[in-house]
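To whoever is on call:

I kicked off a structure prediction for a single chain this morning and the downstream step that reads the tokens threw a length-mismatch warning. I double-checked the sequence; it's 64 residues and nothing unusual in it as far as I can see. Pasting both halves so you can look.
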Amino acid sequence: MSDDFNMSMRKFLKQVGVTSQQAIEEGLRNAGDIAGKEFTAKVVLTVEGLDVEHVVTGTIKGQN
């Protein structure tokens, strides 16, 4: 793959990671007492113009 492709891919994935973490942290802060609770997270990635749908699920554990 080309350098331009790799750079655009890395930039996009970094933006996804950083903004997703910020959104999760804000949600956890606003949730109140979350100690000992677990939250199921799901990300659905689609790419317009390509036949791509990628789903990632996981668990986020709350703490004080």
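Update from on-call: the warning came from a stale cache, not from the record. Cleared it. Sanity check on the structure: The chain has one domain: 3-61.
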